[in-house]
Write a structure and sequence with these properties.
By secondary structure, the chain is mainly alpha-helical. The chain has a domain at 175-278. It contains 10 helices and no strands. It has helices spanning 7-37, 42-74, 77-85, 89-102, 116-155, 159-164, 175-202, 216-238, 248-266, 269-272. The longest helix is centred in the middle third of the chain and has 40 residues, at 116-155. It is globular, with a radius of gyration of 23 Å.
């Protein structure tokens, strides 16, 4: 039996998931009681709970798509646990790929990990890499929160001052909050996306391992994902389908994966398997 599907792993994962569910229920009950203590109507609280639960469905779809992408290499247990606790879909795939490459695993996410030591190493990298934020949070959260509040107060100038500066409003400094929202966060996201795009176009792979390097299928997958995502974004904006916006990324990922399978089976073998960096 494959160790990635062992009963012991499922039992451990089940215990972790049950703890997460118990924690969620505990805080849900505490929040409901606090709302009632503040005089909030029961129907309003129930509506808030229902709308919040519905809002999590799009996020759950993107998480499911990431689990599907990780299962071929790592099996269902580790992706299930990682993405049910604190996992982030961008981080988990990046950390898993980087760890497998460092351990010399050939084939990337498409080839199952057969060495228990490599499997354990990948799990440790995925776990410890994201735990750092939890470790530093108690030390930095309060000072950072104070800085953000101070920056927000500085940005809220009196109306009279705002009117005086109206001609140069576009050039007005926006402070720390403005910098983070306008530059830092988009720059980090663009850098992360750029790394994935570069790997699909010029990523080097091992000559003996199919799917490890950039080639026809990686380009097809990339193009389909981009085209579908842009089309859905335009559709959501044109038709004002706000409910569609959270689904754009998971739908794009799933359609791109399906397209890769279809083109692999439809294209001639010498084209489908061609890799210029493989």
């Amino acid at each position: 039996m494959d160790f990635k599907y062992s009963t012991a792993l499922y039992l451990i994962a089940g215990a972790v998931i049950l703890f997460v569910l118990a924690q969620s229920i505990f805080f849900l009950v505490k929040a409901f009681k606090q709302g009632r203590a503040l005089g909030l109507d029961k129907s309003k609280l129930r509506n808030a709970i229902t709308s919040s639960a519905l809002f999590t469905i799009p996020s759950a779809l993107s998480i499911l798509a990431t689990i599907i992408a990780l299962v071929p290499a790592l099996g269902p247990v580790i992706p299930w646990v990682r993405l049910s606790v604190i996992g982030n879909l961008m981080y988990e795939t990046t950390a898993a790929e980087a760890a497998m490459e460092a351990f010399g695993h050939e084939g990337g996410m498409a080839v199952p990990v057969t060495d228990p030591a490599v499997y354990a190493g990948v799990a440790w990298v995925m776990t410890l890499g994201i735990c750092f934020s939890l470790v530093i949070l108690p030390f930095l959260a309060k000072p950072l929160h104070k800085k953000l509040l101070q920056a927000g107060k500085k940005e809220e100038a009196p109306k009279a001052e705002a009117n005086e500066n109206a001609p140069v409003e576009g050039k007005k400094k926006r402070g720390l909050n403005g910098f983070i929202n306008d530059f830092a966060t988009p720059a980090i996201f663009i850098g992360l996306i750029g790394a994935f795009i570069a790997r699909a176009i010029i990523g080097a792979g091992k000559p003996e391992t199919f799917g490890d390097g950039a080639g026809v299928l990686s380009i097809i997958t990339l193009v389909v994902a981009v085209v579908v995502s842009i089309a859905l974004e335009i559709l959501a904006k044109k038709l004002k389908l706000t409910w569609l916006e959270p689904f754009v990324m998971p739908i794009g990922m799933i359609i791109a994966m399906v397209a890769a399978i279809v083109f692999f089976n439809v294209l001639p073998e010498e084209i489908a398997t061609f890799e210029w960096r493989g």
